[in-house]
Amino acid sequence: MRFMTDIDERLDAHSYPATTGELIDAHGDLELALPNGTETLGDALGRVESTTFETAEEARLTAYSALGEEAIGRKHYSDRDPTALGVEGHEPVSL
Q: What is the C-alpha separation between 29 and 13, in angstroms, rounded?
């Protein structure tokens, strides 16, 4: 993911094992440009419970999974799945 390039470089350069708090202290100010706004790495990692990362890949995957709703495109959008039961959806359009 292109928006994580700076984060990738900094996480790769960090020494491991490292705790969530250590990563937030060292790199929490890094800003992510997301499709619907921005967020800092500290904000994303602040959403997960404190843990120790053994590798940069573990830290990266945790950061990906902890991004807020600004990281998604259109909310509740899928051109493949039917609307869930009990949820008011859009009108199907035949192309």
A: 16
